[in-house]
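Researcher: We're teaching a course module on how sequence relates to structure. For the next exercise, students receive a sequence and then see the predicted structure as tokens, so they can try to spot secondary structure elements on their own. Here is the exercise chain.
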Amino acid sequence: MKTLLKNAREQKGLKTREVAQILGIDQALISKFESGSRKPTREQISKLSQLLEIDFETLMITWLKEKIIYEIGDDEFALKALMVAEQEIKYNKSVSKLKISKTLENLLKEIDLLKTKLDSYRQYDSYKITQALELEYTFESNRIEGNTMTLRETDMVINEGLTISGKSMREHLEAINHQEAIGFIKDLMQRNVSLNERDLLSIHNLILRGIIPEDAGRYRKVQVMIKGSTHMPPQPFMVAKEMEDYFIWYETNKNKLHPIILAAEMHERLVTIHPFIDGNGRTSRLIMNLILLQKGYIIANIKGDYESRMQYYQTLETAQTKNNKEDFLLFVAQTEKENLERYISIIAQ
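Model: And here is the predicted structure for the students to work with:
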């Protein structure tokens, strides 16, 4: 652990003082982590992993190994105890594994068949198709949040640089900003980087840039209520810790869950924390679609018409207030399936 941390820090060209300042950890603790005289907490492991770009799983395994050895040492019963513990961990893991319904399981199988089919048509893909579908995504995502621009008007603002009479400056900026945010998540996808707090804040910064500049890319400092929902987001002083747990959950589950489930969970968990004054919905959908793109799927474009919007909000409400995510997971999976079917019908013509 100590060698791993020190080597990673030196490779990044950082001093212990700089690491301490960035992570909000006492400099003396950083030095103790590297000397081996003090062990980081799980939360500190997550922060160090992201800053020093050390694979989270590698760091966690090293951390847990050292904790185990410290606790049991060379006790004569140590190996037998480890064998018993291994069996118990396997049992607990199988019990705690996310349970999904047969309906959702079958839908995921259908989606994966469609993805395989799409992969065989990839050579027929074109920039024009992608551009048109991304424009639709910007239009629908903004429409969910109340933007009144039509698809054609959104196109004119983004691709022709025109100003639409009767539409507010905010609506113009929402269109431009969202399109730039799509470009940003595509860049992240191509670089194949693991989602981290810095990138999430950058996405939100793009969404609110020029609209509410003082809150763009910053967690909220006040309590908020979600219009039309009975869910009450956490108090502002809890947001930073909730977001820390959010990224720990992601690192722990990113290679365990089906990509559709992972993407939907990351969407629901973020919008439930509601860490920003505004732009939570757009940011959550972008995070969901970043994960889908990274896993080789396509953008799940949730429509902004009344019926689709109400179904979207109702399934989220159920997930947030009744601790039942089934309807929301089904909604996202069905959306992805429909988008895959449409995409294939376009490029297979």
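Model: If you want an answer key for the exercise: The chain has two domains: 2-96, 105-347. The domain at 105-347 is CATH 1.10.3290.10 (Fic-like fold).
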